[in-house]
Structure prediction request, 306 residues.
Amino acid sequence: MPSTDDRLDLVPRDEPGAVRSFLFALIVHLLLAAALTWGVSWKSNDPTISFEAELWSNVQQEAAPALEALPPPPPMPPAPEPVPAPVPTPAPPPPAKLETAADPDIALEREKKRKKKEAEDKKTALALIEKADKAAKEKADKAEKILKDKALAQAKAKAAAQAKLEAQKLEAQKEQDAKKQAAADAKFRKDNLARMNALAGATGAPDAKGTALQSSGPTASYGGKVRAKVKPNVIFTEDIVGNPVAEVEVRTTLDGTITSQRLVKSSGNKAWDDAVITAIVRTVTLPRDVDGRVPTPLIISLRPKD
Prediction:
């Protein structure tokens, strides 16, 4: 029968240094975890991003014998940052997230600001609209006033022209009426004077148109009497071209005595004019007319070849 010692020989023996290998692996893992913790920047505001590391080995390796006093291991360099994957094209941003119940005051304040801004924008828009309407109304009123003023000025000018025309017509009518009235008044006076003369014993013929009691002025034959008396006193021996006339105004007294003589129309020949004046002076008195009167003043006309 086999002994206990024989059985113990078949049991696998413990490898020497297993405890030290386990402790060394534990220390390495702790240092690696500390280095990873130190090198990784934790971001608490983005819970969707996380990193995970796992250390493993395919081949089992035997640890080296532990030293009596191990120096502290050098700090492990930080693990390199993982290469970020290519960022896809961002989708349209989701609608603004409503404020949670945790911030009611902020949400209320933002809502107040939004409503206040909307009210201010609406007030500004209304003010702009009101200002534009007011400017348009003022412009329309100004244009209307200009048209009214222009129409009023045209109406005034037309009224003034019409009034002027009416005044001219009235003035012409007044002038015509005045002429008619003057003619009527003259005819009325003439008729009255003729009636008065007839009542006073006028001596004119029935068909006479005068207004005096008796006719005045020389008769048709009186001129021949005057020339017959004056011409013998004319002394003129010079030759003269043509037969020019010289007219002399003579004034006399009631008995025919010549008081003055004046040349009123020259014959163009001074010698003949002087001869006529001298002849009248020599005549001294003029003959009486058929009615026994001597007309005065009297125009005597003489020609050298008559």
